[in-house]
Amino acid sequence: MQFLKIAGCWSHARRRFADVVKALGKDKAKDTFAYQALKQIGAIYKIEESLAKLTPGERAKRRQLSVRPLVEAFFAWIRESRDKVPKKSETGKGFTYCLNQEKYLRVFLEDGLVPADNNAEEQAIRGFCVGKANWHLIDTINGAKASAIIYSIAETAKTNNLKPYKYFKHLHTEIPKHQEDTSLDFMKELLP
Fold it and tell me: What's the gap between Cα 41 and its chain centre?
């Protein structure tokens, strides 16, 4: 049985450090803890990019060899450095965030299916979040369920490099051909 795992997002972990470097400018920030944190997180991402095309099993093995030591070093460095910056500074808040999320930020190391960040997921739901103000007319449970199904189908189509309009048109052409079927097995053939 598969259980859900809560995984942390390294993109969120790097955000406060990136804000500090951006505010100071790269040249002025080079001697800061925020800049050092960004460099270390950048090294983690660089290796992650090189593992992107591997199978999940192989990715998990390679993460143990090449990414885990960087993650270990990052958290050891934060513990060593956290008293050297004010806790209420952006860098201090970044350190606190990382330490509070450490357990979750390490989850990706154990499972090759878990990404280091949730950027792809956030990008996928961006349109939904922007559009939700326009959907106040969906005011029933059934309307909300129908909207969720349609949205899920559209996003799944996009994820699989299909054009949602053409995919919906295809579904509307094929599904009616099976109205008399007593089994829904034909639906497997319609999946993106």
Answer: 15
pTM of the model: 0.69
DSSP of 82-103, one letter per residue? Answer: GGGS-TTSHHHHHHHHHHHTHH
Does residue 68 contact residue 140 with C-beta atoms inside 8 Å? no
Give the chain's residues under pLDDT 70: 1-3, 125, 128-137
pLDDT (0 to 100) of residue 192: 83
Name the nearest CA neighbour of 107 among 97, 115, 99, 95: 115
Identify the pLDDT of residue 137: 67
- In this structure, how many other beta carbons lie within 10 angstroms of the beta carbon of residue 5? 12
Tokens of 151: 């949205």
